[in-house]
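Task: sequence design from structure.
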């Protein structure tokens, strides 16, 4: 894949001093889709930073324009607590370095999957969602739309607080955009999948992704693999308003909120502030004592369907806290991606489902595969 070759083509700069010898690259944290991420040490201030190293492109190239857009957008948003701080960029030789705040407690993905801190914890879910909504509302008020909101691009402290958005590689200032299929497959706005439309709303695309993240937090798994009509889970939801209630361990009240968020008519979905009010009004999100049933279209499971730890999946793992997150990877690439299997249920407690067919979408790719979000059945098995 192009993203793999670009990252692989960059040398390991560990031990190098940059920015007039003020920052030492002390450790490689991970390989992003379009660069390498280092832990940096500021020799004068005696503090640690994150440093993203990217190739230097020709000034008139499309890659250069995309890179400049990411740096400019992120830099303009760094005055808010809900955005990872962008401390500057520096061009040196064949490389462009973005210097960022180091947030080494991990991301929202780790909080949901690895630490499972949101399980049956309504107060914590509300607190985290309020912070996340505030951050998204802020960038929208500043006229920037993220277009790749997902747990991997949201940093947080170990307790799920101190939410910060990261990775603005797909961001835009165009509220109405023609970049169809832009984002990461599980969180893509359905209207952005229909290229027969004249355009779609980048603002509403972010709100849709926010709603999918919310569903993942309260249900323990991604509700569908795509908003394409061919996806059996999304199709089941479109044909049965109670589908999420029947397949996720959530309360009726939470299910009704998700029905509003995922209404087939965009103008009937809540605004971001209406969404916040509705989240805070729910008494409880999770019901672990209720049986849920697998949908009849659920694919077979078994050893042959185990998730392959390959270089072309969206999720990735490595040993350090930052390398378990894609938040410092450049997501500005359109690639053919073989996505990892995620689904609301598994008919076998430890089973995995086959990956869906590859699709051409503009996505944030990762170089090292990360385990998928748990299926709902696995989630329930662990909690009971």
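Answer:
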């Amino acid at each position: 894949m192009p993203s793999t070759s670009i990252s692989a083509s960059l040398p390991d700069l560990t031990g190098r001093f940059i920015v007039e010898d003020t920052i030492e690259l002390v450790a490689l944290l991970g390989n992003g889709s379009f660069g390498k991420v280092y832990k940096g040490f500021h020799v004068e201030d005696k503090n640690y930073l994150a440093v993203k190293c990217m190739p230097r492109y020709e000034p008139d190239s499309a890659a250069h324009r995309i890179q400049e857009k990411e740096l400019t957008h992120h830099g303009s948003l760094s005055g808010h607590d809900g955005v990872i701080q962008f401390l500057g960029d520096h061009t040196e030789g064949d490389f462009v370095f973005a210097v960022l705040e180091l947030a080494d407690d991990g991301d929202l993905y780790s909080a949901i999957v690895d630490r499972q801190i949101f399980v049956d914890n309504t107060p914590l879910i509300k607190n985290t969602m309020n912070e996340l909504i505030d951050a998204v509302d802020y960038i929208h008020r500043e006229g920037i739309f993220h277009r790749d909101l997902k747990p991997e691009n949201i940093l947080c402290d170990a307790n799920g607080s101190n939410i910060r958005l990261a990775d603005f590689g797909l961001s835009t200032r165009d509220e109405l955009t023609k970049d169809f299929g832009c984002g990461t497959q599980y969180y893509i706005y359905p209207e952005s999948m229909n290229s027969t439309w004249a355009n779609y709303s980048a603002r509403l695309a972010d709100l849709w992704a926010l709603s999918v993240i919310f569903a993942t937090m309260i249900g323990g798994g991604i509700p569908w693999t795509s908003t394409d009509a061919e996806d059996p889970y999304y199709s089941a939801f479109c044909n049965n308003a109670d589908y999420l209630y029947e397949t996720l361990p959530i309360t009726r009240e939470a299910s009704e909120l998700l029905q509003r968020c995922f209404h087939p008519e965009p103008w009937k979905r809540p605004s971001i502030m209406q969404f916040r009010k509705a989240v805070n009004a729910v008494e409880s999100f999770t019901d672990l004592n209720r049986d849920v049933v697998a949908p009849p279209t659920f694919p077979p499971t078994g050893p042959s369907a185990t998730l392959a730890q390959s270089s072309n999946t969206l999720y990735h793992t490595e040993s350090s806290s930052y390398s378990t997150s894609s938040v410092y990877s450049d997501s500005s690439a359109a690639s053919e991606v073989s996505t990892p299997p995620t689904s609301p249920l598994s008919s076998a407690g430890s089973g995995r489902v086959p990956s869906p067919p590859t699709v051409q979408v503009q996505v944030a790719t990762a170089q090292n595969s990360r385990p998928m979000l748990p299926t709902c059945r696995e989630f329930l098995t662990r909690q009971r």
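Residues 28 and 212 are 32 Å apart (CA to CA).
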